[in-house]
Amino acid sequence: MKIFNKIAFLFILSGLLFTACKDEGPEVYSDGDNIHFLNAASSNDESIPTPIAIPIFFSKNNPVGGSFEVQYSSDTAVEGLDYIITSPTSFTLDANEYTDTIMVQLIDNFVLEGDKVITFTIVNSSVPAGFPGPDGLNSTHEFTIVDNDCVLPLEGQYSEVTTGGAGDGSGNLGTPIDPWDYGVTLTITGVGCDGDGKYTIDDITMGMYVNYWGIAGPNPATFVVNGTSITIITEESPDIFYDDEFSGSGAVNPDGTISLSWSNGYGDQGNSVLTKL
Q1: Of 10, 32, 61, 164, whose CB has the highest number of CB atoms within 10 Å?
Q2: Average of per-residue pLDDT values in the chain
Q3: Contact yes or no for 187/157 (Cβ under 8 A)
Q4: H helix or E strand, kind and range, residue 73
Q5: Can you tell me whether residue 209 is helix, strand or coil?
């Protein structure tokens, strides 16, 4: 019987302890009720596709309700162009509610503009805004939109001179064209950051398909620059005439010209030097 009583006592005690742990609830503060941001500042890359939550907490001594608003402003970010507020900016929390969020959707604009800051401020609060004290810490929150765009200095129009020729259809050089300048103006366009930049060139054949084979263009390809090295990205280059796929590599030269060696599976090939106009 004594053993049974001890077991029963331990069972009841453990139940009380478990119940006490379950009922603790959110942490409360002894310095009075206040509403504040979780952090004074945060940042996110502008390319993040989903809305970002900025948490706001209602710290209180007793279960009471409250209300507040969030105002926001920026000297650098433009609403609708750089970001969209996707949540309400007026909040009401019930007695048993301790947190809410303001939601920000960032807009990736693919333009090098630098970081931008939005300042969020708790206003019209039914209790003091910010942690207790003269500074009202975390009553404001500075949110930085981090610009993920890079400098793309190769963008522009180019003339070309190529040494190479037309293929024999089986992967070998058939007819040398040494050198050629078909008088085409090539356009290089930046399409995103990858290393030092990712670009498209509007005619990887340097005018050969149009001027030698009589095939209409354009015949674009994508290449990436890392440091001064260039690599054509075959899998990201759209299919060119008759599903031709080009590969190649090159370099950005100290004088600003671009050297590019390229070829396809039929023997069309060239060593080209591009000069910016």
Answers
A1: 164
A2: 84
A3: yes
A4: strand 66-73
A5: helix
